[in-house]
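Q: What does the assembled structure look like for these inputs?
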Amino acid sequence: MAWRNNERTKHALGQPGVFARLLKCRRKTSWQAEGIVMSGQTAQTITLPNPLGKTKSGNGPVKTDPDVLRQAEQAVDDLQGDYPAWAQTDNDGLREAINCARSDPKTLPQAISDIYKCALDLKGQGGGFEYDLITSTGDLLTKFMEERETVSSHDFEIIYAHVDAMQAVIRQDIKGDGGKVGNQIVDGLSELVLKKD
Amino acid sequence: MTGAPVSFTQFAVMIVDDNRHMRSLLCSIMRALGINKIKEIGNGESALADISAFEPDIMIKDWHIELMDGTTLVKTLRHSSVDTIRYLPIIMLSGHSDTVRVREARDCGVHDFLTKPVSAKPLLARLTKIIEHPPPFIKT
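A:
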């Protein structure tokens, strides 16, 4: 392991807006480690041997066999048939958390956390299996639940509306954005979520 | 195919996610890439307990995991006295892509960040990027 000072990093420390600029670029590329330095801090760059080099044979840029990517994409496709059952489990978990919160207010903090987590799981998986409406609806529900400490009766109705929408997508096996009806559902839920607080 | 071919057969990957469906998805992608040594873990404490014995080459972890949520596990690993653990390449997955979270992940020493839903192509791209250009660490 080699420890060395990095002049470029030191120089970057004094530049105003560096941090913001790096953040702005995050969608184009993954961050460079240099980006983690905040203005005014001193830093050392630690350059390590590359233990993952064992996976690479030869010199030059890494090239993956296109068949490997095809196989990986096929593996995801092969799981598509399983996804509705997975989504159903998560949606059932969501419904259970809501019922808990309604029946026993003492469980509300945990239930809010569970509802948020289930919604996040649904959001994080649906689109990967072409169930984009699940991801859109899960996204709206996470936004609605984020930093929420209390849930009123009206809020419960809004949460249920999300659960019912996802249930319909699962039951009717609606893939993609769901067309006109799908857009109407998302627009309607968005309106409810935006009205929160 | 020009360039240096990469083979993942010797790769050891630790997947940390408390959603078993997500673990299944990630494991399937990893196996399809040719990775045979895969450990799936459902929470942060188990990951910490098993990491020395398993000796992963890379960790793929979800932001929201039970027992050591968010960046807690990463911060703990980055303070390990064992170099292979302290500098373990980590790809953070999250359902969120907001600036605050990406910044927090980056600042705590995550190598890369991938927003869910996860698909094979960006995951493979991140793995090959870490192999080709392992980022240096900044110690502040």
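The domain at 83-196 of chain A is CATH 1.20.120.160 (Four Helix Bundle (Hemerythrin (Met), subunit A)).
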